[in-house]
Design goal:
By secondary structure, this protein is an alpha/beta fold. The chain is 38% helix and 14% strand. The strands form three sheets. The protein has a six-stranded parallel beta sheet. Helix 7 packs parallel to helix 8, helix 8 runs parallel beside helix 9 and helix 11 packs across helix 12. The two termini are 12 Å apart.
Amino acid sequence: MFTHRERFHRIFNFEPIDRIPMYYFGTWGETKQRWIREGYEGPYTPTGDHHPLLPGMDPDWEGSLWNVQGLVRLNAIGDCGSGVLEETDDYRIVRDALGKVNMYSKKGSTPPHTLEYPLKPTRESWKNFRRWLDPNLPGRYPADMAERAKELNEKDCVTCFMGGALYNWVRDYMGVEELSYLMYDDPILLEEIVEELTDHFMTLMKPVLQVTKFDFVYFFEDCCGSNGPLFSPAIYRQIYDRYYRKLIGFYKENGVPLALIDSDGWVEPLVPCWLESGFDIMFPVEVGKWGAGPAEMRRKFGDRLRMFGGVNKFILKESPDTVRAYLTELKKETDKGGYIPIPDHRIPPEISLKQMQTYVEIFHEVFG
């Protein structure tokens, strides 16, 4: 028997294991509500996407990765007045501390619609915005960081942290359209922004890595859609590659053994770029309408490709025999090592509690 951490690393180091861990990537809020109506009585978080854990699942790996397990505030810390600007029965319009204005639907889980972005594609706007990335702003580190790190180090669970977003953060600040134009209109400015973000992550993470053991760093990029990447491999190599190499090298030099990149969509045009930059694990290998799958990805990119995901979440609605056949086919890839199958995104409310419980049972039957 291995610990959860040992098992995780042995899989991605292509070493023998006792079994495949049973993980997933959380649920929609409506899914939690459905499962409670259907009899779920265990612990869960009513807000956020992760949890609940069902009997038979391994300890949650996601945890508080988005805020570095509570050890540091990486995000920009704005000083604009925030609050609700307008509210109806259908939506709320809210301005945050960076000045970003979002419209939130009250009719279910759906991404907000951004009405105004805080960063414009100009040097003057960047000069004004970058002050919110100052590593010395109050509140970056908790007073009890050492105690929190010690507690995290002693847990027998896989731990990770969001350690980079060189495309996604700029997209979040500026919007897809303006960022896409900036790549061509002023690539020098964009590279300056990416370079500063890289230094920002390394500066703030250095004290954390001196006291904490992490199993992998999670790069959140979401840079692909159903028809492919939102920028070309040429742009990637021109602007992003050297900074990913720098960040990944920094994390590995400071004791983080694996680097994972998260992007939904059809990612295949960028996979060779990511492997060249030093990423180890692709996530979530979203099946989607383009039919991505671990076996096909390995045929195209070789056994060096390591994957986390690749289970069509909607297969969970099918009969037990269909689920069993689907997972049995994936076992051919887990037997090679370097792959942990999990549903390829948040579990939607179409999946009942009973269907999820059946999936957990069949998973253990197939994977040991």
